[in-house]
């Protein structure tokens, strides 16, 4: 028992040192970045939740501080974090989502987008697809549809958006539909969506988007009938009657 505790304490101390080095001597880490990331990532799946959380937070710090220098590690680190989104206690899931969010903000956007489409969108786990869909939408909004249309991954993105827009989970569907709505504003993406989806599926997605838009509009603009009813209920004082004309 004592050895296990000592081992955990040493590992947590090591993670703290890595964070300190990233903040003050990042050049030391950059020389052995692959080795460092592999060591930290190996602790993410620790059965000890506290140690796992510390390792996840350390990866978040590395993304935040080293930024695009972490591009080379995205393919190794992101799948491990995505795995923790479904296969861990809720607070660990939250930490993994936060670390992925930092990754998306700090590394080269197309690098993050590629790993999310390859490892997140295609996952069989609902929580992973939801997390990937939300982050993917944020990237589409940030990069812009016009710029994305000129990238080699445009076709993959169109297919991913169409797939997410039909997901069994409501939130994931919402993120996917928002992406489809944005992509349809670009002629190339519109064509790619038509190619990757059946006519029936695309029409179904468009119907859902239109229906949601109408519901939102209805929520923002209450009907006249409801306004009248609300005003009538709110008026307490009796109204003065007009004098009759004789």
From TrEMBL:
Residues 212-246 are annotated as: Disordered. One of its GO terms (molecular function) is microtubule binding. One of its GO terms (biological process) is microtubule cytoskeleton organization. GO terms for cellular component: cilium; cytoplasmic microtubule. Residues 22-145 form the CLASP N-terminal domain. InterPro entries: ARM-like, ARM-type_fold, CLASP_N_dom. Residues 212-223 have a biased composition (Basic and acidic residues). It comes from the Eukaryota. PANTHER family: CLASP (PTHR21567), TOG ARRAY REGULATOR OF AXONEMAL MICROTUBULES PROTEIN 2 (PTHR21567:SF42). This is CLASP N-terminal domain-containing protein.
